């Protein structure tokens, strides 16, 4: 599928599954790409009878970049857009694809975008699944110093692709949570593929600035009216379980599911549990 014009921002999109089946729209996290979704997750959702729509967020993957790809200055960057703008991208994308309503699944930053989508565009959302996300960055809930340092550390220059891969692997090891065995070879291979497809640390910086500029969503979450699942790792070092609990407490009638052993990642050893929880939730508003 070619790039789709989503309200003036060109997004790279992939769509699979029967055209008449209910749609599940999945939104990725900070700096990540559609190739980072575990195939078993997408296959599990598709096998359960849903269409699957995935896309690269603005400033990542093969979607439009809103600035240079060179690393941002270490002292930060002024926000060029917010998570609310990124939520509108999703709405415009649904419009462009002729999709009236969809189940929305968002991971990490994607969960923040999905929360906004569900609250501000209730007519477009059949359900919400917020995965390893939070209600904002002013709630006093912080990750471990090591995880926060990895999140904010400067990225290597564009030509330093080996260093970029090494940072991705090192960061993934920190975010993993330290309970389940870390899949070194799989993470290294995925990191190499991600850098080969698109390495844009400037886009990472602009997305990070969008998160910081968007503030707390506590009041917004009280407006979410669709069935909601908050799925979180019990051993997440970056966005701690307390953040998942807070988000779930703010969304009316939300279901909270904490998975022991899961950090800030979607580990293969737990993918059956993750798929099972998501598919059971999607069946609520099929």
Topology, element by element:
Layout: E1 3-6, E2 9-16, E3 23-27, H1 39-47, E4 51-55, H2 83-96, E5 102-107, H3 109-120, E6 125-131, H4 145-152, H5 161-175, H6 184-197, H7 201-213, H8 218-221, E7 228-233, H9 241-250, E8 255-259, H10 271-282
Parallel strand pairs: 3-4, 3-5, 5-6, 6-7, 7-8
Antiparallel strand pairs: 1-2, 2-4
Helix pairs in contact: 1-10, 2-3, 5-6
Describe the protein in words.
- This protein has 286 residues and is α/β, with parallel strands linked by helices.
- It has one domain: Alpha/Beta hydrolase fold, catalytic domain (Rossmann fold, 3-Layer(aba) Sandwich).
- Strands 1-2-4-3-5-6-7-8 form an 8-stranded mixed sheet, with helices on both faces.
- Helix 1 packs parallel to helix 10, helix 2 crosses helix 3 and helix 5 crosses helix 6.
- It is globular and about 45 Å long.
- The mean pLDDT is 94.
Which labels suit this protein?
8-stranded mixed sheet; Rossmann fold; globular; 39% helix
Gap between N and C termini, in Å? 26 Å
Supply Rg: 17 Å
Identify the strand order in the major beta sheet. Answer: 1-2-4-3-5-6-7-8
Q: Enumerate the spans where pLDDT stays under 50 for 5 or more consecutive residues.
A: none
Instruction: Characterize the overall form.
Output: globular
Q: Level of helix content?
A: 25-40%
CATH superfamily: Alpha/Beta hydrolase fold, catalytic domain
Would you tell me the structural class of the helices and strands? alpha/beta
* CATH class assignment: Alpha Beta
The number of domains is 1
CATH-level-2 architecture: 3-Layer(aba) Sandwich
Q: Fill in the CATH topology.
A: Rossmann fold
